[in-house]
Amino acid sequence: MSLIETVDLCQRHGEHDILKKINLKVDKGEVFTLIGPTGAGKTTLLRLIDLLEAPTSGRIYFDGIDITESRKLRFEVRRRMAFVLQKPVVFNMSVYDNIAYGLKWRRKKRDDIREKVNSILEIVGLMPYKNRNARTLSGGEAQRVAIARATVIEPDVLLLDEPTANLDPTSISKIEELISHIAHHYGTTIIMATHDMPQGQRLAGRIGVLMNGEILQVGAPNEIFCSPNSKEIAEFVGIENILSGVMIERDDNLVTIAVNDGTIQAMSDYAIGDRVYVLIRPEDITFTLAKDSSSARNIFKGKITGTTPVGQLVRIKVDCGFPLLSVVTKRSAEELNLTIGEEVYASFKATAIHTIKEWS
User: Fold this and answer.
1) pTM recorded for the entire structure
2) CA 255/CA 249 separation, integer angstroms
């Protein structure tokens, strides 16, 4: 049985539908990430799950019990959840007292509070700051205080809204390590909204894509980022090679797709005559200087039309009769002389391709 379930959950503000029939199940101990563009409704959904708002319609179940309307049940369940906002909230008191706040509110014994707070201070790496005023900390340190304050009460559910937004890479790494530790050490169910898609891949067991107030796909990270079920999701998760084509031949699951003046071979269940989008991730495309040096089914001669350095990587654009974008290491680009105007062979495997019907 799921720990949290929403059924046809809707939220409407005035004439605007913020969420539309959200059906979601999150299991106990799961790390579930919500991704989607700004304004998609991620924060609103977290607020509904945390019972800070009442939905316009639909139901919310906690551990199999409908808690949507019962004021008593909502109060009891809220005490079993904690919510950390995008902008960390810290009180004008010491780091120790900030973290101890929820325990004192629950009237825990002083010795128990001291033991729990000191333990979490070690976990979040803030023991040297325990007596320091929390409002003098950096943004990353303040966020760790907020997460520690939420975690020390040992909630069944921890809700995180963009927990690393606007933080430096070092702070992001520390907070991601902290979230992973909380999930594994405490077995806490974590629901996190993030705009950082690689972060969602690193931390989540499952991901839900929320766009325009609707859940469009739920699945393991590999499913979402390699096998999106719509062009809209493919574009959002960064699949930059999206080619329009038609199925023209089939040999079991191996199909041939007409794309512009060429053909691409892929693995697909769609029928001959179906119009599809061919999705190819940039990292699945390799470049060679000779055609016979690759065993991939799809090999195309092309001319480099653009190169863009990105750190230790280089984005390479090639015209093969249709545009392709690939990413190679800076060293490979130099060794192969991948510069504008040079001719190369671009290759990719049939199994690396994902197809979507154009109407989807």
Assistant:
1) 0.88
2) 6
